[in-house]
Amino acid sequence: MIVSKRIRTLLLALSLLMGSVGYAQETITTIDELDADNLPTESVLPIVDSDIVVRNRKVAFAKRVDVSISTGLVIDEMFFDNKFFSFAAFYNTSDDVAYGLKYLSRVAGESDYSKQFSQTA
Question: Does the predicted model carry a pTM greater than 0.70?
Fold first, then answer.
């Protein structure tokens, strides 16, 4: 009970401190307050007719094969082993289209929590 009161007190103190962080109204400068000499005299708008304009042209995806192997954890599983393994292979026909396969496999077995739970029953 004492620990939960301490945790509640700590969370309350943190929420009060974090909730009061902000900027004073006086520090915000509007355009009317700026000196006209510091403002730009001309501007150029970018032309973005298509999504190709904003892409990094140094990275070419067309006619490229991507192969990946990965492993990780399933964080919402308690009773079974929470590790997984994946393998993927994709071929990019263009910058927008890729075809491929992805294989996902979970490691078989019980988790440590499940083993402890079965021993107590």
Answer: no
